[in-house]
Amino acid sequence: MPAPAPGWSVADILDHLRSLGSAENRAGMARFGIVTDRAFGVGNTLLRPLARRLKRDHERALALWETGWREARLLAAFTDEPKQVTRDQARRWAQDFDSWEIVDSVCDLFVEAGHLDLIPVFAEDEREFVRRTAFAMMAWAAVHRKSEPDATFLCWLDLIERHATDPRNFVRKAVNWALRQIGKRSAALHGPSLSLAGRLAERDDRTARWIGRDAMRELSDPKTLARMEKRTARRVAGGAISR
Questions:
Q1: Which residues fall within 8 angstroms of residue 56, CB to CB, at 6 or more apart?
Q2: Out of 101, 127, 181, 226, which could bridge 139 as a Cys pair, Cβ 3.0 to 4.6 Å?
């Protein structure tokens, strides 16, 4: 089969994915909590380069998602065009989330598309992987939305506190992830995040305590503080140069 190209149809892509997969890979994925009922068994080390060769195509991404295959859905996330991703599409795709891997691979597309207003909506959804989406989006935005004002992240701390008692594994880990990333984003966010972590660490609830203590450990670490100081210095220097 020739190398993948932008003009490939969905059927061509599925055939190629099928040729790359293996039962051994599927078994390995299952051990990491990846749903393999509809998986060919192709790792991200192959999917990412494949996505780059296929290039972005919104309509094809929609069609790939509808196939229901794990690898096709990951390629849909990697090759969709953020500017064409609507709120309705994001909500439809979220209804299909069935593993942490899919959530974490798609949430960056939602953030890049600018649908941060869906974070509270996803957070209030009782389904484990939809709720995880909210906090994965927070974590992704904290790292990659460089121009987003601190006020956006301060508002999300209330959601983190509200859902810090959800004991489900893939929710609690995402809540913890979001709190740590927000706290490391800027000096202005570090204090409120560390304060929240301290409150959670003192809660009677076991899940909240774990989230709080783990976040406190990282946010109080001297290496974390040193990195934040360097980042702040670079921003100040950059601002001085731009002026």
A1: 79, 80, 81
A2: 181
Tokens representing 32 are 């990491």
Q: Residues 6 or more apart from 79 whose CB is under 8 A from it?
A: 51, 54, 55, 56, 57, 60, 61, 64
CA distances from 36 to 30, 65, 98, 170, 206 (A): 6, 16, 10, 17, 31
- Alpha-carbon distance 143 to 71, whole Å? 26
pTM value? 0.91
Which residue is associated with the tokens 């909500």? 91
Cα(99)–Cα(106) distance, integer angstroms:
11
Distance (Å, whole) CA 122 – CA 133:
7
